[in-house]
């Protein structure tokens, strides 16, 4: 079974790896009971907490998909990775890093304390809300439409279709974004926003509301695994420097306040969202000889029951098992 | 020129790589002017700030040493890595992680705030003083002598000789350790210390005062690069799990409050000390085809002029250049 | 020279006390050089930093005015006192204290940290911005016009005329209120605001922009000195309980982060604003036998050069001298 | 019934006021059920939580004692007031205030955070542990014995007998003082301690272990009420300036993190200890005409069941009732 995509071939793997992944999904699914769906907006609360799906796409086009792989979900914080890359493409790494640092914090994703204590100082990193809103304010040139479009276009180049924004999710986020507005007004006062607060919030919430499936996420991961090069479309989408920096950020700050624990126990660059999605990236590796995807792969996971940190409980368990069994740990 | 060590061979490289490294040392040395030697105790203040030396040992025994590679210096915070491994060997990972978390903080290495705000809670990670003192209290069984010995023995197994403790440095540290005693009494009150405050402080300060050269540090890095296996002594010194966990910690928390920046710009597991030493680890890698040390290597760097974060200024510049030129970045 | 006001008499004192105050103003005026006018909006920056004026009104109607007593200025943070009293009149003390605590903090007036660290928790007191915005959201019943009017009406009852809002100041505040909006959105998320963020901010900034003179402020102080009773209009405007509570708040939190120092060195209930105004209250006292205003008095001070804490430098010096010479210290 | 003390007369009041106080004690005693005795050391835990006693001594020598007025208890944090006065007597107010500020904090009494965030900076006030330990390090001249003696002598001058130190309490405190040692080492590092950490801790814990009764505490309060003058011994023990400053501190910082609430609801200078004691001071007042103690009085209260803030629950209720009924509120 084959799918022609952009002149290159995705080949579905229905055999050994597929069955292993299927088994591991069965192992991990019960952990969903330890979490629950985000409930601050109706669309997230309605998700089925027992769902768990995965898509893996290797650098050679091999694709493994199983479980609830085709449920649509919104990017939420995974969009922080895309926004950061888009800003680096548009303005260069050094311009972006003048506005946002790349240090992990140990604070909650929506914390405002550090901005006050370390004042004057840039937001600590683009994977927390303060940093992501700052990055959103940089994007594009003129207005919020163009800013959001710069993210959608980047996704299009990686995924092969223009993503849509889930309008219901966006409207709900917009109406409950008090804490994000607090952060944004704080950033505005400190001079970090390149546009109005309302515009930055609109861009940030729209990028969070972009709808994807695990396959879209895996494809984004694949490009990162290949240092910005799209092995299926055969196109360099962003530079190796941007890719490496982004993966470093995912390791140190990608899994909210469990980033250190995830690095210690799973050991792969990843970014999670409160919708239950996880973007994971496996760079090519030298050590293992009998495991698949030696040339690297991208992984998309979806499991909407999240833990206290905001990460998919079953999704993390699944990635931990895959990493251990196939030696995906980069350290 | 060859050195027989434990029946295996270290071969000095005096050619291409050696000359490249020599040139890069010349490039990096001027950056030392941007830092200065730690001055809280006389022994550190007396160091020559313009020194810069490096030793690299590959998994195949190839060794490159140049610059001020043979200056003796004290481990300082690099000892946190050894202490953590020693505790994991003695008690198992899960026992240790019940007493110390593995999350980066963004706070100063000697900060006490987070212990109060997140109370009750373990120290955030073993690479900050609060975590390292907690780990020191676990070591060995009965008393401070035995605890220090458990670290020295581990170093002996990796380096091939029993290290000595610089008594002058220890005495100076002991007399000025007010802040560390404050941390330790706080930890004692919270029930995290397995021994008396004075004993934990003695162990911690003695491990900081262990004297090494860049070659010793490179050898420690080599064992970590090989997941706990010593490729020269041909011995598994600690488990792959401990090695991977330690390297993950070095990436997220190893370079003080510049850990995120170091991961973003250099991209290798590393741990620095205020003496100007840096322990760096290059795991085997798949991607590069014309650079050396494809099977991994350990690196020891010494450059006593440190920056505001506590990291060797010239040492970081040197590692950045090596990482870029030889594609050592793990992401 | 006499002024008939609401059937009662204000008598100007042009003699002994007047000349003493005149001399003390001369002593205090040079201290203005140690401060400078608030400069975050043009209207405040334009003030003449060397001005210093005072009006004292005793419970028997004796009035002493000298220096730049008739310069108009905006209430700024002094309005927090009026807003708090208005809310207590409308809703009762216990209703208000469920929404705002009465503890001093030691933090900056516009700090957001404590809201996050002590979450869930009410704003610490109504004399910091977070508390004052919360109080502003309670006022009146239906809309921002009515809320502002409830403050203006209370001032009218104490001062004898309906105050006007300085529109230029309000517009400037409105456009630069990023930090206050950050606070208000934070409070909104925590459920402490009884109206929309924009409405609460509008009310708060309008109350800050109310224009007064030292005589108006002294009259407000006089009512507080008499436990809510207006000795000239002969009317109980608010209860003794509200007056006592308000004066306690002024002592513990009224002078920004120098409240403790002001209590220690001056010892009278007072509230300052960044416009350089100070409202001070002298309750009746038993101890002194040869000083004036034994039955209490209200004091209005104006001196626009403020210190790092936000208090009028010369104004504080003047009050310190008066308190010492006439034994106004309540402790 | 009369007691001759230092040539002056204490007269017991057995009539109207006595019976009122007796009734109010009955009203307040049940509130003890809402608290519990401090349990960090055995001696405090053994206290009878239902006890409640009071002693009031007026400036004219009138004494009212009822309830469990003669139970001995240790000063604990009440000693912070005595230590502060002793340091001001020995070194002058300005010397002391260079080492400790007089600002309330809103933080826990044993908090260490503010020392780090506001570094470099003095401890915020002498009523929190950090400030009290700093003050203890100043006392006397040469050693810990002399430092403790300077406090005991001051108590002797006010109370008429040399107080004893409860050795059991001191030993228990000494062994569990981890948090205080953490604070002291922090202060040492910052250069605020005038002696060794162990010496400062010994002095501080010994002053906390001084044993008193409500009558002793009332006598101390009486001297403060009279601005440093002892109306019975007819002696000026410390200056009016020191007395006023101390009373201001008691109002802004004396009742732990409920100081603001106590000022708002009771309105008198007071200092509590975790043993359940409260020192309260009523300055002479002008307003009331039919209540007793118009010339001021000192009050000692004992009720060992304390609330979450560390204040005697029943004791605070009793003082609130007395203040309301007899209009003791100073505001």
TrEMBL record, chains A, B, C, D:
Family the UniProt entry places it in: Belongs to the glutaminase family.
Domain of life of the organism encoding this protein: Bacteria
Amino-acid positions noted as binding substrate in the UniProt annotation, renumbered to this chain: 77, 129, 173, 180, 204, 256, 274
GO molecular function terms attached to this record: glutaminase activity
Name this polypeptide is given: Glutaminase
Gene3D superfamilies in alphabetical order: 1.10.1500.10, DD-peptidase/beta-lactamase superfamily
Record keywords, A-Z: Acetylation, Hydrolase
Native organism taxonomy: Bacteria, Bacillati, Bacillota, Bacilli, Bacillales
Gene it is expressed from: glsA
Subunit relationships: Homotetramer.
Known catalytic reactions: L-glutamine + H2O = L-glutamate + NH4(+)
EC numbers on record: 3.5.1.2
SUPFAM superfamilies documented for this protein: beta-lactamase/transpeptidase-like
Enzyme category, top tier: hydrolase
InterPro entries (UniProt xref): Beta-lactam/transpept-like, Glutaminase
């Amino acid at each position: 079974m084959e799918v022609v995509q952009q002149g290159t071939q995705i080949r579905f793997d229905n055999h050994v790896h597929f069955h292993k992944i299927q088994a591991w999904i069965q192992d991990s699914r019960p952990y969903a009971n330890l979490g629950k769906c985000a409930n601050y907006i109706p669309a997230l609360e309605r998700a089925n907490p027992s769902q768990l799906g995965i898509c893996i796409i290797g650098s050679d086009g091999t694709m493994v998909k199983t479980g609830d792989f085709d449920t649509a979900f919104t990017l939420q914080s995974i969009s922080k990775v895309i926004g950061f890359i888009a800003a680096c493409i548009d303005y260069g790494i050094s311009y972006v890093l003048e506005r946002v640092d790349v240090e992990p914090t140990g604070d909650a994703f929506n914390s405002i304390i550090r901005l006050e204590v370390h004042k004057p100082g840039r937001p600590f990193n683009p994977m927390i809300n303060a940093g992501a809103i700052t990055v959103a304010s940089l994007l594009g040139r003129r207005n919020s439409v163009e800013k959001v479009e710069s993210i959608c276009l980047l996704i299009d180049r990686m995924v092969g279709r223009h993503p849509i924004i889930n309008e219901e999710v966006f409207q709900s986020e917009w109406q409950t974004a008090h804490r994000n507005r607090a952060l944004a007004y704080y950033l505005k006062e400190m001079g970090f926003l390149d546009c109005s607060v309302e515009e930055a919030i609109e861009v940030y919430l729209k990028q969070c509301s972009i709808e994807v499936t695990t396959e879209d996420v895996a494809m984004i991961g694949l490009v990162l695994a290949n240092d910005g090069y799209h092995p299926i479309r055969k196109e360099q989408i962003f530079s190796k420097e941007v890719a490496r920096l982004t993966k470093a950020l995912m390791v140190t700050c990608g899994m909210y306040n469990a980033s250190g624990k995830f690095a210690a126990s799973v050991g792969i660059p990843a970014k999670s969202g409160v919708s239950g999605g996880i973007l994971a990236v496996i760079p090519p590796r030298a050590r293992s000889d009998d495991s698949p995807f030696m040339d690297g792969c991208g992984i998309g996971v979806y499991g909407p029951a999240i833990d206290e940190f905001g990460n998919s409980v079953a999704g993390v368990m699944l990635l931990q098992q895959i990493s251990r069994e196939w030696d995906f740990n980069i350290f």
